[in-house]
Amino acid sequence: MSGKYGIACIMDETAVKEAIQKMSQQIVKNHNAPHKLCIIGIRRRGVAIAKNIFDTITELSGGKEPFLGELDVTLYRDDLATLKELPVFFSTNIPFDINNQKVLIVDDVLYTGRTVRAALDALFLLGRPSKIELAVLIDRGHRELPIKADYIGETVRTTDIEYVRVKTPRYDGESAVYLQDQKNTPT
User: Mapping DSSP to helix (H, G, I), strand (E, B) and coil, where does residue 98 land?
Assistant: First the structure.
């Protein structure tokens, strides 16, 4: 690990763009009508990744836009009672019907699978999609639940004490992915 505080850049802006392009091309290839796909980003950085996938699919589909929504899974987390600090709540914004639709959940990092499980719980309260797929920018392994991504930007092998931090222009002013030695190291 190199850099101050054991922080290493594992994806720069170009690598992030290439990963999103690759995932979007796979999504378009796997869907007859990608413009009818419901793309739902998990708050927070999953929303930024979902918007990038939405933009790329729109471009690849000749300007036909898929649906785009945002999902807050905070209330569906299985560790709410154990958190030391009060969680921050965001709004869910899904202005379309997901019943009998193909839904693509998007998140920044897939780790234990618990966030995705929470997203599934939240989605099923909103409707019953015909199919749900998962796209993640980074898959770092260490699953605790039987969850697997359908579209992966990059697979990064990590240890349990390492932390993957995705930065997006919307929230951080840059597009990059960093690997840190410990979860409590400053960025």
Answer: coil
pLDDT digits (tens, 9 = 90+) for 164-181: 999 999 889 999 999 998
**Average pLDDT of the segment spanning 20-40:** 96
- Does residue 183 surpass a pLDDT of 70? no
d(CA 108, CA 19): 12
Tokens 């009672």 -> residue: 81
DSSP 8-state class, residue 151: E
Report how far residue 185's alpha carbon sits from residue 34's, in angstroms, rounded to the nearest whole number. 40
pTM: 0.90
Give yes or no for residue 134 having a pLDDT over 80. Answer: yes
Q: Residue ranges per domain, the chain?
A: 4-80+92-180
Q: CA–CA separation, 168 vs 47, rounded Å?
A: 10
- Is the bond leading into 157 cis (omega within 30 degrees of zero)? no
Fold adopted by 4-80+92-180 = Rossmann fold (3.40.50)
Question: How far apart (Å, rounded) are the C-alpha atoms in residues 182 and 61?
Answer: 41
